[in-house]
């Protein structure tokens, strides 16, 4: 449950921003074990998803119904309820500039220090390295819907062997703001950092299999994750969307 503490729409995150920041400042330094790191960084991912993703907003009647007794309102009675597609008007969250500014703030304050540390990995303990890599990966996952793709030319890989087809279409308004850091592409920043780190690990720490594995997972995330797909939208919205 801890990694879904802040699974909330952007509106509530912004209204309680000081508390959100305060919680992140407490949990993100936790690195006594990998599990603590995973749970802490998952909270950061949830916050960034709420700020950067496009998703259905909560029904205005749900919160009011949640305050009623079970005799007055029982949620199971509304499961599989039908709607009139001609009159139903779902409300969507599309990232605003304020959302993106807050996400950029989190990247500057919590993610960039991890990348700076990984740029000089000499003598770093395995536990610390794992913490840095996992935090960066969860941040990329959470913000991926608002992160521009890599800069530079595109290369067709249709004829290359692949274990599974990658298909992550993301519908996004052309005028929606995107997340950059001082005008720089976040994916490119992370990619350059991970390439350098991977070279170091292969040369000096080839027995650190866990760190190498996580770097590879992060590289895959950078290349394949463009935001929430249909499954991700369902999981993200499940907690607070109701017709």
TrEMBL record:
InterPro entries, A to Z: Blm10_mid (IPR032430), PSME4 (IPR035309)
One Gene Ontology cellular component annotation held by this UniProt entry: nucleus
Organism the protein comes from: Cylicostephanus goldi
Proteasome activator Blm10 middle HEAT repeats region domain ranges (all copies): 5-144
PANTHER family reported for this sequence: PROTEASOME ACTIVATOR COMPLEX SUBUNIT 4
Domain of life: Eukaryota
Name of the protein: Proteasome activator Blm10 middle HEAT repeats region domain-containing protein
A GO BP entry: proteasomal ubiquitin-independent protein catabolic process
A GO MF label: peptidase activator activity
């Amino acid at each position: 449950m801890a990694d879904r503490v802040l699974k909330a729409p952007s509106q509530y995150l912004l209204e309680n921003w000081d508390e959100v920041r305060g919680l992140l400042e407490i949990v993100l330094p936790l690195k006594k074990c990998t599990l603590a790191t995973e749970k802490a960084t998952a909270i950061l991912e949830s916050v960034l998803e709420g700020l950067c993703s496009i998703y259905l907003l909560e029904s205005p009647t749900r919160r009011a119904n949640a305050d009623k007794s079970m005799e007055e309102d029982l949620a199971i009675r509304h499961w599989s309820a039908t709607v009139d597609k001609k009159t139903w008007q779902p409300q969507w969250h599309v990232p605003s500039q304020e959302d993106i500014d807050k996400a950029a703030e989190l990247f500057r304050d919590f993610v960039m220090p991890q990348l700076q540390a990984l740029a000089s990995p000499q003598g770093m303990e395995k536990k610390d390295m794992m913490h840095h890599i996992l935090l960066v990966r969860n941040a990329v996952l959470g913000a991926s819907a608002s992160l521009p793709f890599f800069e530079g030319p595109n290369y067709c890989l249709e004829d290359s062997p692949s274990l599974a087809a990658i298909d992550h279409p993301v519908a996004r308004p052309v005028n929606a703001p995107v997340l950059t850091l001082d005008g720089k592409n976040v994916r490119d920043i992370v990619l350059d950092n991970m390439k350098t780190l991977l070279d170091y690990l292969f040369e000096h720490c080839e027995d650190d299999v866990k760190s190498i594995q996580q770097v590879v997972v992060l590289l895959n995330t950078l290349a394949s994750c463009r935001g929430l797909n249909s499954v991700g939208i369902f999981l993200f919205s499940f907690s607070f969307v109701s017709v």
